[in-house]
Amino acid sequence: MNGMIADIRAQFPALDQQVNGKPLVYLDNGATTQKPQCVIDALVHYYQQDNSNVHRGAHTLSDRATGYFENARKTVQTFLNARKAEEIVWTRGTTEAINLVAATWGADNISAGDVILVTAMEHHANIVPWQMLCEKTGATLKAIPVNDQGELDMEAYARMLTPEVKLVACVHVSNALGTINPVADIIRMAHDNGAITLIDGAQSVAHWDIDVQALEADFFAFSGHKLFAPTGIGVLYGREELLNAMPPYQTGGEMIEHVSFEKTTFNKLPYKFEAGTPHIAGAIGLAAAIDFLNGLDRPALAKHEDAIMARVSELCAQNDDLRVIGNASHKASVFSFLLQGAHPADVGTLLDQQGIAVRTGHHCAMPIMDQYAIPGTIRASFTFYNTLEEVDALFKGLEKAKMFLL
Ligand code: C6P
Description:
alpha/beta, Aspartate Aminotransferase, domain 1, Aspartate Aminotransferase, domain 2, seven-stranded mixed beta sheet, binds ligand C6P
């Protein structure tokens, strides 16, 4: 194993364990990533030393917690290269970030006759909120088609950009296929058409740096837990003008400026969107994860992930009974496939018995599964702490599974 990767792995305690009597081979990073010790330590330190509510207390612990919490927001601002910390709204994750935009921006800006475009490869989190908004308002949801390779049909997209299109909501990296979508072009074309954009970055943030200003993104959503941080914390980036013009999302404490029984006025950004006590430890953990990433040679790690995918392709080419789902020319570290003649769930169980963790099923992306006329796939999703040896273990594991199943 490459020394840099060995050093990184040593910082992820969960990777060093036996599962079903075999060394764990964790290939379910698209579902959630493991956490480095520094993130775990940040959570423990917060609860041991600083635990308090934020923006409320008249005491030292509350000041400390507030300082860490707001510094975490600045860490995310720098990570995404947002103009201002006020453009970073804490959410529970990608799902809540998209729901927030649908419920607030959507309520104010979408009406009967409007069109919302998504892609045919979206996760349900970037379909259902828009579908419900369309049902409520009389707008229409349309899906930009995806070809057999799993690539977006950009010519069809250009044709679909009619004056009625108000929003284009698009996944950056498909969790089911691994396709990397050309989001800079997608955003530019939407803007030329007068539409705004939301990018679902759930599967992209862990693989390379995001620059929301360079992308000219309007909204960008991601989840901490897919970025080596805790569950229950995520981010909605929104351009300041858009966020300022939007009504609040949930209501209650913290999001108000003044409340009387006659009228309530709302807090400034970003607090207007953060009702109630937030996930303070989660935000601190997310900042620790970003600091950890900033300490790594990310370009070198991206190359390592390319090497992993090259090894997957090489071994796949030697197996006639594997059908790869998603062959886009630009693909992130996702290997979604079928073992001909076997049900994905059975393959997943047999791999688990060998200590190999993959995900099986529709991956919350039923429409694209329907397009391929399959109920689901077996998905190995890699990140930088995975090794070429683990790829070999996966293919050996598949050989064993075949002995039982075929
Ligand atoms: N995909 C997977 O195994 P949350 O659950 O809010 O953190 O993320 C939702 C989500 C949104 N968009 C994309 C592209 C995603 O991949 C996910 C989560 C996980 O693929 C769990 S279904």
